[in-house]
Design a protein that fits this description.
239 residues; Rossmann fold; six-stranded mixed sheet; 37% helix; globular; binds adenosine-5'-diphosphate; binds magnesium ion
Length: 239
């Protein structure tokens, strides 16, 4: 039996009559990248909120490393290795990079938070900017700092909601390479919601496609790209 790092089973989130997510199942194995795509309003962000514990499940179950965490809150899940990155909301502009990563690590209860922070900074090539104020970083570097803050305490699962938004092609590729390296070196599993199809199909081991709160296709990038329903629903006939 495969031991999934993350397993979402028959997850539903309904807001009154709106079935934002309606019976979604997906898994992550160790070090796997799963791309999650679909039109606006398909339920991608909602499913991330469901997995992190930010939104209450209408139905279904979330398991982390074999443990049912459905009844646990956001912080308890984070402490068990389920992390997400936010877009810049977590950055203190007037604090040096190293200090804020260390602070995040300390807040996580990591014993040697300095070593933890320094590992993360080195892994994401932020070490040369360790004394720079976040406000003085370039945009691409700020996004790497978002990622750094999500990586303190060595999470096993990383959930990313459009991490490439607003980045140049070069910055996106750079971030994608860092993600790929993280999955092999740190064996982090990644659920990647992203509009940039080149990135998604380029770095994902598997791709899942949502439409109207449901999974309409899931499989290897090549299989999903070739799926008639996906092409009609999302990629357009020219894809
Ligand atoms: N708090 C909420 N209350 C009511 N409807 C919501 C709420 N959050 C999301 N929705 C609805 O759920 C659907 C899925 O939204 P979302 O998960 O943000 O889609 P995506 O991230 O794929 O663009 C949309 O129809 C959206 O309007
Ligand atoms: Mg969204």
């Amino acid at each position: 039996m495969t031991q999934y790092v993350l397993q979402a089973e028959d997850v539903a989130i309904h807001y009154g009559g709106v079935k934002a997510v309606d019976g979604v199942s997906l898994t992550l194995t160790k070090g796997q990248i799963r791309g999650l795509i679909g039109p606006n309003g398909a339920g991608k962000s909602t499913v991330i909120d469901a997995i992190t514990g930010r939104s209450r499940l209408t139905r279904g179950q979330i398991s982390l490393n074999g443990e049912d965490v459905s009844a646990l809150g956001v912080v308890e899940r984070r402490m068990r290795g389920l992390s997400r990155s936010f877009q810049r909301t977590s950055i203190f502009g007037q604090m040096p990079v190293r200090k804020q990563v260390e602070l995040a690590s300390h807040k996580m209860g990591v014993k040697d938070s300095q070593a933890d922070a320094d590992d993360v900074l080195q892994e994401l090539d932020l070490w040369p900017m360790r004394d720079t104020l976040a406000d003085d970083l370039g945009y691409g570097e700020q996004r790497r700092l978002d990622l750094a803050l999500a990586l303190v305490g060595r999470p096993s699962v990383l959930l990313l909601d459009e991490p490439m938004a607003g980045l140049s092609v070069k910055e996106s590729l750079d971030l994608a390479q860092h993600l790929k390296a993280l999955t092999s070196r740190w064996e982090v599993s990644v659920l990647l919601v992203e509009h940039d199809m080149d990135v998604v199909f380029g770095i994902s081991d598997e791709v899942t496609v949502f439409e109207l709160g449901r999974v309409i296709a899931s499989g290897s990038p090549a299989a999903v790209r070739a799926d008639t329903r996906v092409r009609e629903a999302y990629l357009g006939s020219s894809a």
